[in-house]
Here is the input.
Amino acid sequence: MEKIQDVLFPSLLVAFLAFIVIVEVVYLIAYFFSSKKMPVLFLSLIELLAYCFGIQTIQPLQRIAHLIPFTYLRSVEILSGRLPKQIDNVNLNWSMGVVLLPCTIILLLLGILFIESWGNSRKKSMLNRC
Here is the structure.
């Protein structure tokens, strides 16, 4: 039996990193659907719920659950070993989350910066034409 601090403190780090990924993904969804506020909230909610809780019920997702950043929102279940046993995925663990989540954060951040700079340069070229 594991002590609660052995599971709780590392799970906070993984959950925090997963939260950053969520913020970046919601930002990207909001960027592409910027004129419509309600679909952004609805799509974000569906996305989170589907990836977070659909892993147990959707069989094909169980094999790649360790590669889905939203899985790590359930960090306590992952670190206690309950979720990896339920879906039979031994790759779903703390070390994989600590590697995957920062890489995902960096890739999403680079994507956001690229999209923002591309959008700003397009706006400037439109202003110069007028």
About this structure: Residues 7 and 42 are 32 Å apart (CA to CA). The helical segments are 4-32, 37-53, 59-63, 75-80, 82-87, 94-129. The chain is about 75% helix and 0% strand.
